[in-house]
Amino acid sequence: MSKIKLNLIAAACDNMGIGVNGTLPWRLKKEMAYFTTMTSKVNDPQKTNAVIMGRTTWDCIPLKYRPLNGRVNIVLTHHVDKIKAEVPEGVVVMPGLDEAVKYIENRDDIESTWVIGGSSIYKAAMDHPCCGKIYLTEIQKTYKCDTFFPSIDKENYQLMDEEDVSNEKQVEGDITYYFRVYKKL
C-alpha cells in the first residue's frame, strides 16, 4: 500500500460545475488564495507539495501562472512525448495517475499531493486506493458549466471538520460559499 495520500481540491457550484470554456465561471479572490495556500503550505520547510492535473487543466491555467509556483507540477496526458516537448523544464509529464503516484513515492522531498483537475482526473483520484480527502469549495449559486466535479458517494466519503479549514460561511460580492472537507472512509 502506498504511503501517498491524494488530496483533491476544487470549487464547484450548485450543479457541481467546475468550469466553462476552459475557464472558471466565477472570480473569487479569497477562494483562489485558499487554493494557493492549501496546495502550497508545508510543515517541513525542506519539502514541497505536488499538484497533479490533466493536460486540459494545465492548458487552462493562464500562462503567467504556469507552472504553479512553489509546487511540483505533474501533468497527466496520453501524449507524453508531445506534451513534454511543450511544457517548461521542471514540469513532470506522466501517462496516468498510477505513474504519478509511483513518481511521488520515489521522491523524499514531497510533503502533500494535490489533485487539481479536471473531471476525469478527479474521478480517477476518487476511485484510487490512495485517495484521502476532498477539499471542495461549495459555491451556493448555479453557473452555466460544461465541466463538472464527479458525484461524491456519501457511503465512501464523510464530511469532517479540519483544523486549518474554516467552516464559516464565506462571502465575496454576491456569492456565498463554504469550504468543505470530505474524508474517504
From TrEMBL:
UniProt entry tagged with the keyword NADP: yes
Pathway noted in the entry: Cofactor biosynthesis; tetrahydrofolate biosynthesis; 5,6,7,8-tetrahydrofolate from 7,8-dihydrofolate: step 1/1
Start and end residues of each DHFR domain: 5-184
GO term, biological process aspect, one: one-carbon metabolic process
One Gene Ontology term of the molecular function aspect: NADP binding
InterPro entries per record: DHFR, DHFR-like_dom_sf, DHFR_CS, DHFR_dom
Keywords: NADP, One-carbon metabolism, Oxidoreductase
Catalysed reactions listed for this entry: (6S)-5,6,7,8-tetrahydrofolate + NADP(+) = 7,8-dihydrofolate + NADPH + H(+)
Pfam families: DHFR_1
UniProt cross-references to SUPFAM superfamilies, sorted A to Z: Dihydrofolate reductase-like (SSF53597)
Superkingdom of origin organism: Eukaryota
GO cellular component: mitochondrion
EC number: 1.5.1.3
Presence of the UniProt keyword NAD in the record: no
PANTHER family: DIHYDROFOLATE REDUCTASE (PTHR48069)
Family note: Belongs to the dihydrofolate reductase family.
Function: Key enzyme in folate metabolism. Catalyzes an essential reaction for de novo glycine and purine synthesis, and for DNA precursor synthesis.
Protein name: dihydrofolate reductase
Organism expressing this protein natively: Ostrinia furnacalis (Asian corn borer)
Lineage of origin: Eukaryota, Metazoa, Ecdysozoa, Arthropoda, Hexapoda
